[in-house]
Structures are given as structure tokens and as C-alpha cells.
Amino acid sequence: MIITTTGSVEHRPIEAYQGIVFGEVITGINVLKDIGAGFRNVFGGRSKSYEDELLVAREEALAELARRAEDLGADAIIGMKMDYEVLGSDNGMLMVTCSGTAVKLI
């Protein structure tokens, strides 16, 4: 599945627009990761555990997006956008969403 942020796929004309598709992932950040990130916040440095969690959530959202496009018979997703949000009363949940237009290519 071709996924692009552009409005077209180079050298591949669009035959049909199959619809807008979404991929969403909401994941909890556990207490141990929060403690480690808290130390990084005080002393500086990168939070590897948060970065890893974000990487996994991003990959899962893109995989879900591709699955939904394939269910519509699409060959590609154009105009893909991704967004991140922190949710929950204690900001303990990470939401990654992506959307785009599923298209059939010639």
C-alpha cells in the first residue's frame, strides 16, 4: 500500500476515489515509564520509553489506515495527515490518529 502526504502518486494517475480512511490508536503510558520520564524532565535528556511507545502507536495507526483502505479496494492513500494527542484526567493516554483519501490507481 502506497501512503503519501502528497495529493497524488507520481506517474500513477488516479482511477477512482474510494473514500476517506482513518487509523486510530489510543495507548496507555504505564507508571514506570512515567517515573523515568519524570527524571528526564528534571535532569534533561530524551525519554526512550516514550519515544518507543510513540513509534509503536504510529506504526499501528498506519497499519490500521492501510487495512481500511485495502478493505475499500484501494491501491494507495493520498493526502495522509497524522496527529498526536494526550488524553485522560492524568494525561496518561496517548492517541495517534491518521487520515487520508483511499484511491484506486491506473
TrEMBL record:
It comes from the Bacteria. It holds the Pfam family YbjQ_1. InterPro entries: UPF0145_dom_sf, UPF0145_YbjQ-like. Belongs to the UPF0145 family. This is UPF0145 protein DOK79_001615.
